[in-house]
DNA sequence: TATGAATGAGGTTTCATTCAT
DNA sequence: GATGAATGAAACCTCATTCAT
């Protein structure tokens, strides 16, 4: 028998033997919660499926009812991390604010979210390459959504004349912003003992805006 | 019996059975050259020691005369990558240039070096965590040297009054610069199809200097 | 993940992945039966785990579901040998006999048991030292039980006035008796071509009792 | 080229490339001295030839000039141990003493020698089986010499009417005596914390002679 | 739907021995 | 005679995955 079910938990359909989609989602959440911790502390390759099953509180057999490959679990985990990052950002968007205020707020929020899930962000950086090409694209696409948020703010700021920035640099600038936020996670070994979270946010914001606002001191 | 030789190839002494240090260095270079390619294409965990031996053109037994653990190879590789990055940068330093000129040059050079070894940089980002704590510190220390280069340029620029920058932001700015350079490697999936290397360097340089130079357009 | 099951097969708990204790015991018996023969004919170190798996009629993977180390197998084997020796002796104990009669009977029985499992006894002598300190103590403790049997008989004989023996020599004498029985195994190269089993038992018994019975010829 | 030399170091000729017999003997002594300690502490199988070479203070290549197999080293070691035991005994023989006095003395001496080299005796018990059939016979033959010493004393005691013993039991009794002496080594875990060396010798001697001397208390 | 025992390919590492120098 | 680098078969053990119950 071939796995045919269509448990939905992201763009990529992972085969399952189980018919009830609700059950599939619930179980996969258990798997993700268990696996993310293990991947963080031991890395993907050094984590065994047995360990994941055990931490998920079901048997190895049951685990394989809901996924077909260990790599599927990595996909679920990576996708979920990016989803959580994206959703964490959502919170502060959509309010009717001046572009520079929204940028300030969104950047702060992003760094805060990353701070709260820094191990997860690190995991993404380190293990994404273990995914299939297809799965990797899915994960990166989710990541791109975050960049787009900032690109949109920048564009609006340009239109509103708040930012001083060549229009063709918008995308690059958005990319920079996201990377400088994630850097709080992947360079924490260099940053944590020099700055507090608050200091980091403030200084990066200052540097950033000094670049964007027309010449004035921020 | 414990491996006792002292083949020098970085701060951390890796035990070897072979007594001739010249030979040790030569053979370890072979190992590094072979391993780096394999690690890049398959990842550290999916590369087998046998493959490394084969690609190094000697037997598995010989391989283990020069290292004691597979992880040693990863250490050698990571250390070597950072060394090459650092050395690539060296090239453009020490000329008597104005700080902003030197920064421009150094940044350009760093991105060029990273472009030439982008796979290697990616490798560092992805596999460093597989090292022992001690080995990891060694590797990160080597990486820090690069940041220091930029911090020094920034300090000089401040003293010379060329840069507009709060003195307490120097280190953070240096860190930013290095990350924005390395980003060319680890975000290449997002950047390569938007910018050429030249475009990337120019735009990032522009953004960077607009931040540092006192209000003037660059 | 750590093996956590509790398959009982002696004082020392050997970890297993398998949950059903009945199965664990059954499979370990298979392992013991297969391993003891191999250890006898090739020695512990020259026997490979694959050979043990093969002789146990299951795959190497299955073997490692029931033990965690090759040394565990040696422990199981050694412990089992001592158990069998001890149980073989049990047979003749507990009848209401005069002390000298019981001693005669117990010694005869012990030598017979040892004769039937002489290879096993040799194995104990040769391979016990390959065990961990803890495991070794377990095995030696089991061996001590046999000495205690004889010490008890001697004590009773003293109380009943049957034996002529300094009370402080009881333990040493018991030790001597067991060693002289086991000697039939570990000196067989010197003894087998001079005496039959029956001759050996009779002569040793005679020498022994001439020592213990008060002056009379036996 | 085939090893052809005839370095003499016992009955069994071990091939060597080296012509000078003096050198061969000297070097082999070095090997034996180094190897015996290693075998005692780690066992024969867990000791590597590299370790032996290192402890012998010459290179692995040189080691193989004087032996042809790791097993040869075990042979040299075992043979040497038995030689030393035999020679230790020699010391007290050949004086014109009454048989019972000589027995007393010889037994005491044997236990003392064994006490001084108890690890070595243990080694013999544990590793002899790793020898080739031929080599093993050589080693056991050397051991038999010790038994013969005691058999001779017993025979003389019989002729002189000092001992009460069936003549056909002489060999068995001699064997018993040697085993009870060696037992001080191979049962030391059970004996050492109950008796001092002196107590052990005295008590065993008493038990022994009570068996041999005609009914009198000793 | 859930279980967990069974599988075996394949991973890392060791080490006795050789042989060119 | 001495050296020690090179070899590669083979050792122990792991673990993703299956499938009968």
What would you call the quaternary organization? homotetramer
- Strand elements of chain A, count: 0
CATH class call of the largest domain in chain A:
Mainly Alpha
The CATH architecture assignment of the largest domain in chain A turns out to be: Orthogonal Bundle
Helix content of chain A: 55-70%
Number of discrete helical segments of chain A: 10
Strand content of chain A: under 5%
- What is the string of helix and strand elements of chain A? HHHHHHHHHH
CATH-derived topology of the largest domain in chain A: Tetracycline Repressor, domain 2
- Tally of separate domains of chain A: 2
Q: What is the averaged pLDDT score of chain A?
A: 89
Distance between the termini of chain A: 65 Å
Shape of chain A: elongated
Low-confidence parts of chain A:
4-9
Biggest protein-protein contact in the assembly: C-D, 38 and 37 residues
Secondary structure blueprint with pairings:
Four copies of one chain form a homotetramer.
Chain A (H helix, E strand, L loop, with lengths): L20 H22 L6 H7 L4 H7 L3 H21 L8 H18 L1 H10 L5 H27 L10 H17 L1 H4 L5 H16 L6
Helix pairs in contact in A: 1-2, 1-4, 2-3, 4-6, 4-7, 5-6, 5-7, 5-8, 5-10, 6-8, 7-8
The structure holds a DNA duplex (21 and 21 nucleotides).
Your description of this structure?
4 copies of one chain form a homotetramer. With 218 residues, chain A is mostly helical. The first copy, chain A, has 2 domains: 21-74, Orthogonal Bundle (Arc Repressor Mutant, subunit A), CATH 1.10.10.60; 77-211, Tetracycline Repressor, domain 2 (Orthogonal Bundle), CATH 1.10.357. Chain A is 68% helix and 0% strand. Chain A has 10 helices and no strands. In chain A, helix 5 (99-116) packs across helix 6 and helix 7 packs across helix 8. The first copy, chain A, is elongated and about 60 Å long. Mean pLDDT of chain A is 89; it is low at 4-9. Chains in contact: A-B, A-C, B-D, C-D. At the C-D interface, helix 6, helix 7, helix 8, helix 9 and helix 10 of C face helix 6, helix 7, helix 8, helix 9 and helix 10 of D. Chain A binds a DNA duplex (21 and 21 nucleotides) through residues 17-20, 23, 48-50, 58-62, 64-65, 68-70.
């Amino acid at each position: 028998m071939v796995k045919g079910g269509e448990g939905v938990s992201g763009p990529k359909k992972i085969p399952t033997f189980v018919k009830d989609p609700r059950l599939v989602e619930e179980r996969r959440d258990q798997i993700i919660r268990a696996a993310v911790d293990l991947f963080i502390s031991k890395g993907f390759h050094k984590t065994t499926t047995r360990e994941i099953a055990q931490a998920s509180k079901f048997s190895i057999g049951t685990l394989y009812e809901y996924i077909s490959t260990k790599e599927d679990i990595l996909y679920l985990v990576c996708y979920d991390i990016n989803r959580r990052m994206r959703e964490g950002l959502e919170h502060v968007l959509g309010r009717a604010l001046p572009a520079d205020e929204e940028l300030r707020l969104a950047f702060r929020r992003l760094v805060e979210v990353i701070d709260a899930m820094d191990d997860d962000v690190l995991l993404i950086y380190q293990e994404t390459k273990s995914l299939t090409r297809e799965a990797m694209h899915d994960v990166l696409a989710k990541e791109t959504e975050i960049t787009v948020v900032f690109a949109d703010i920048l564009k609006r700021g340009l239109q509103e004349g708040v930012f001083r920035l060549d229009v063709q640099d918008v995308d690059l600038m958005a990319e920079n912003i996201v990377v400088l936020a994630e850097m709080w996670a992947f360079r924490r070994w260099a940053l944590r003992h020099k700055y507090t979270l608050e200091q980091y946010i403030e200084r990066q914001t200052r540097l950033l805006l000094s670049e964007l606002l027309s010449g004035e001191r921020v």
